[in-house]
Design goal:
Blueprint (H helix, E strand, L loop, with lengths): L6 E3 L2 E3 L6 E6 L2 E10 L3 H19 L3 H17 L1 H12 L3 H21 L6 E4 L5 E9 L2 E5 L7 H12 L3 E5 L5 H13 L7 E3 L4 H9 L6 E5 L2 H13 L3 E5 L4 E5 L5 H13 L9 E7 L3 H14 L18 H17 L2 E4 L18 E6 L4 H4 L6 E7 L2 H9 L3 E2 L1 E5 L3 H10 L4 E4 L11 E2 L2 E2 L2 E2 L3 E2 L5 H5 E9 L13
Parallel strand pairs: 7-8, 7-10, 8-9, 10-11, 12-13, 12-18, 13-16, 15-16, 18-19
Antiparallel strand pairs: 1-2, 3-4, 5-6, 6-24, 11-22, 14-15, 17-21, 20-23
Helix pairs in contact: 1-7, 2-4, 2-6, 3-4, 3-6, 4-5, 9-10
The structure holds nicotinamide-adenine-dinucleotide.
The site of nicotinamide-adenine-dinucleotide has 28 residues, from α7 and α8.
Length: about 500
């Protein structure tokens, strides 16, 4: 019997009104049902939004440091359960266990960070031009937020949204991906156990088709925070802006690593390997393009290909596994299709390119780590997000050419340069058009205390995570307050003394 999980609505754990369910499968072995969750319908969304609305006033008026105490307890509970939750992430999403645990650690980090914000949520106080008058700007909550998340970070991305939304005084209706609902539900259980009042955090499991758009466009929802594909994000942004809803979308990427002729080659190869094949290439920040200076192109390609061939595929729970499965059959087919496109476009398949049929791998959605060389920037495999273990190695004449190629796509999430020359790194930092630039590190590995998000088709609206310009800007609006304690009418810009 597989374990049954519920929605959380108004503080009560409950199934879908229509009684329908969805199975969540282990992508390393889809015969294993990780858990069964409600397949919610519109009526369940209506109830969750109503519960969030009803709880809003009480939560908004709860002092932020008290909200922070709840988040702190959530952080402690998630930390106590890290090992189990990390294993669940691996079973449900497929990433190797070290990454499953890293996923949960990111949720813990975000919970502690945002708990601390309960005693900051800083605004600004400035002097008035008039005597006996003060002025300040304060952050205020927005209302009910719909949070919609993808499957590739089953606990981290929900935590990136839930904790800043709650600390800011909003209430939440959270819809996780239908491919990783169990880890998300377990996360919500732990947050609820920390003492979140009923209705403040609601969970509705279900498919994007059935309830995603309905939730985002619901008249009872004030703001939407979405992470997922560019196609869905752009569509939601169009609809929501017409409905006067706050919306921020984190979307796809086609992230480049530039390798200069003065790079430390072993370091660059190791970085490209982690950036390209970590999480089986299923990160929005995955390094799917490596742009190499022509002087070191052949050497890099040989070293990179040899290293890619040594990566061991397998179940993420096994200690010997370097690369886990893809999330599902449709993603497997999509990646194989891109490999065919690459071959037909004239790129050279240097290694990989096939789904795996050896032994136990046959059961899961495994594709060999794949490297294409002789890729030109105009090819589809160099421009479109594949979201799998496929890396295109592209030749560049010099730094200017490399930056031009890096910027010449519709996406702008994460970028990287490997160089020993400080001037090269400064030019790359200045000219790469993306939300994130790494120097001598791959495109993956963002830390939670700084904003996270992209330019162009990678991001719309506010950014995620911490720091100035981070998620607090997504989940609060500014209010300016002037207080006159002179007991007479004072006129700004007009009174002379
Ligand atoms: P997806 O867009 O298919 O789904 C994301 C979420 O949206 C899911 O919960 C889904 O159920 C829901 N959804 C689907 N259709 C919807 C609709 N019409 N209205 C409302 N909600 C809908 O994306 P995915 O396959 O789950 O995730 C992979 C994508 O996510 C990749 O493109 C990846 O780059 C992107 N991603 C981006 C970031 C980032 O921070 N930029 C992080 C992780 C993943």
């Amino acid at each position: 019997m597989s374990e049954e999980w519920s929605n959380l609505i108004g503080g009560k754990w409950t199934g879908a009104e229509a009684g329908k369910t969805l199975n969540s499968l282990n992508p390393a072995d889809p015969g294993e049902v990780v858990g069964v969750v409600p397949a919610s319908g519109k009526v369940d969304v209506d109830k969750a939004v109503r519960a969030a609305r009803d709880a809003y006033e009480g939560w908004r008026l709860t002092p932020a440091p008290k909200r922070g105490e709840v988040l702190f307890r959530a952080a402690e509970l998630i930390k106590e359960n890290k090992e189990k939750l990390g294993r669940l992430v691996t079973r449900e999403m497929g990433k190797v266990l070290a990454e499953g645990l890293g996923d949960v650690q990111e949720a813990i980090d975000m919970a502690y960070y945002m708990a601390g914000e309960g005693r900051r949520l800083s605004g600004e106080t400035v002097p008035s031009e008039l005597p006996f008058k003060d002025c300040k700007s304060v952050r205020v909550s927005i209302g009910v937020f719909a949070l919609i998340t993808p499957w590739n970070f089953p606990t981290a991305i929900p935590a990136w949204k839930i904790f800043p939304a709650l600390i800011s005084g909003n209430t939440v209706v959270f819809k996780p991906s239908r491919f990783t609902p169990v880890a998300a539900t377990r996360l919500v259980e732990l947050i609820a156990e920390a003492g979140v009042p009923p209705g403040v955090l609601n969970l509705v499991n279900g498919t994007g088709d059935e309830i995603g758009e309905y939730l985002a466009t619901h008249p009872g929802v004030d703001g939407v925070s979405f992470t997922g594909s560019t196609a869905v994000g752009e569509k939601l942004a169009r609809i929501c802006s017409g409905l006067d809803k706050e919306i921020s979308c984190e979307m796809g990427g086609k992230n480049p690593i530039i390798v200069m002729d003065d790079a430390r080659m072993e370091l660059a190869v190791e970085g490209a390997l982690w950036g390209g094949f970590g999480t089986t290439g299923q990160r929005c920040t995955a390094a799917s393009r490596v742009i190499v200076h022509e002087k070191v192109y052949d050497r890099f390609l040989e070293m990179f290909t040899n290293a890619a061939k040594k990566l061991r595929l397998g179940n993420g729970l096994s200690r010997t596994t370097d690369v886990g499965p893809l999330i599902n059959d449709s993603q497997l087919k999509k990646v194989l299709n891109y490999i065919e496109i690459g071959k037909n476009e004239g790129a050279r398949l240097v290694t990989g390119g096939r789904s795996c049929t050896d032994g136990d791998l046959e059961k899961g959605y495994f594709i060999e780590p794949t490297v294409f060389s002789e890729v030109s920037p105009s090819m589809r495999i160099a421009r479109e997000e594949i979201f799998g273990p496929v890396v295109s190695v592209i030749r560049a004449r010099d730094l200017k050419d490399a930056i031009g190629i890096a910027n010449g796509v519709e996406y702008g999430l994460s970028t990287s340069i490997y160089t020993s020359d400080v001037n090269n790194s400064a030019v790359a930092e200045r000219d790469l058009d993306a939300g994130i630039v790494y120097i001598n590190a791959p495109t993956i590995g963002a830390e939670i205390q700084l904003p996270f998000g992209g330019t162009k088709k990678s991001g719309l609206g506010r950014k995620e995570a911490g720091g100035r310009g981070g998620a607090l800007d997504m989940f609060t609006k500014w209010k300016v307050v002037y207080r006159d304690f002179s007991n007479r009418l004072q006129k700004a810009q007009i009174d002379k003394d």
